[in-house]
Amino acid sequence: MSGFLAVATVTAALQKLLGDAVAADVPGGKVTTERPDKAAPTVPTANLYLYQVVPDPFARNLDLPARRADGTLVTRPRAAIDLHYLVSFYGKDSELEPQRLLGSVVRTLNARPLITRELIAGVIADAGEQPPIHDWIATTDLAEADDLVRVCPLPLDLEELSKLWSVFFQTPYTLSTAWKASVVLLEEEDEEVRAAPPPAAAALTVAPLRHPLISRVEVAGNPTAPVTGDAVVRVSGSGLRGDTTAVRVGAAELPVAPQDAGESSLQVDLSTAPAGALRAGRTAVAVVQRQLVGTPPEPRGELVSAPFTLTLRPRATGASVAAGAVTVTTDLTVGAGQRVALQLLDPAGAVVRVLDAPERTQDATSVAVPVAGVPAGSYQARLVVDGAATVEAPAVSLP
């Protein structure tokens, strides 16, 4: 990496590289670093001007987080930038001096496109001459950067070149070309980086590359039975057994005992879910595996199967009639945003009325549905939550 002098060092190095070539190719030629709107020089001159600095689109994405959670430095923050230069050429047009200068610059940068450490050392040596050339450059650390700065041409068309020259007020255009120097990495030099402690011990863990896949979920021992919140279910598929295995049902994660987990099937008891964690209706089921790593072994990482959609049917634990409404209580949570309907059945089990439940603002295990206009009589009340009907239909009497 390099400090704040890196940008100026690149410019000084290019000036030295091109100055030696121009002086040898064009008698009296020199390289300056002035603004192009300065007065035109009277001797053959190639003017090197840094006109734009932009973030490097590739190196900026390679920067890792620089600080730990407590604010201490993991690595010094760095800025990755590209330098855009305008090289303009001045001299007698009758002697074609601008064109000869251009040829010398293009040939040199094409043949020597790197800001080498030897070139930087030469610039630093010039800082110690009498009179010194850029004496401040003696402290530059660009030569210590991991990567060398590379120079390449910028293909500006006539419109882009015209816009560039228009920023220099009332300055006539002169023969010019554009170049890019990249990538220049700038980092903070004063902040201390606290090294991470070395590992206490080395450990290697090898595991097969596989992913759990669910093909079917059903009640263990009775595949045709409805899946309820107190059922023991069998999950079938492939790659289901891990170092530690769990089944995620909605928001509940249920551990699977080693004796109940196999490669192609496993069993889990839904009744072990925390109270209120399971919801009636369509819910997602996934197999979750974690690998045991270290001594003592600790579960690390998480490998999750694609979700399998399961219809979880609630059990009706009671029904009552009060204030013109039928309230049905279930063993599973009914979400505030779930669609709920009440089916009233006659003694033969046929549906005679379907009533939508009003909107609710909270999750609950009981839902009240108004029954205004329903003829008096005895009915069976069945709640339907997102298409999942209660297994039982308790009897209610409407006055």
Describe the fold and architecture.
Helix content is about 15%, strand content about 40%. The chain has about 400 residues and is mostly beta strands. The chain has three domains: about 5-185, no CATH class; about 215-310, Immunoglobulin-like (Sandwich); about 315-399, Immunoglobulin-like (Sandwich). Strand 17 and strand 18 form a beta hairpin. Helix 1 (about 5-25) crosses helix 2 (about 95-110) and helix 1 (about 5-25) packs across helix 3 (about 115-125).
Strands, helices and their partners?
Elements (H helix, E strand, L loop, with lengths): L5 H20 L4 E3 L12 E11 L22 E13 L6 H15 L2 E2 L1 H11 L21 E5 L4 H9 L9 E12 L25 E7 L12 E7 L5 E6 L2 E4 L9 E5 L11 E13 L4 E7 L3 E5 L3 E7 L2 E10 L5 E6 L5 E6 L7 E7 L6 E9 L2 E2 L5 E4 L1
Parallel strand pairs: 1-2
Antiparallel strand pairs: 2-3, 3-6, 4-5, 5-6, 7-8, 8-11, 9-10, 9-12, 12-13, 12-14, 15-16, 16-19, 17-18, 17-20, 20-21, 20-22
Helix pairs in contact: 1-2, 1-3
- What gross morphology would you assign? elongated
Strand order of the largest sheet: 1-2-3-6-5-4
Given helix and strand content, the structural type is mainly beta
Distance between the termini: 86 Å
Largest pleated sheet: 6 strands, mixed
Number of helices: 4
Assess the beta-strand content as a share of residues. Answer: 35-45%
H/E series? HEEEHEHEHEEEEEEEEEEEEEEEEE
Number of strands: 22
**Which regions have little confidence, pLDDT < 50, spanning 5+ residues?**
none
Report the helical percentage. Answer: 10-25%
Count of spatially separate domains: 3
Mean pLDDT across all amino acids = 89
Measured on Cα atoms, how large is the radius of gyration? 39 Å
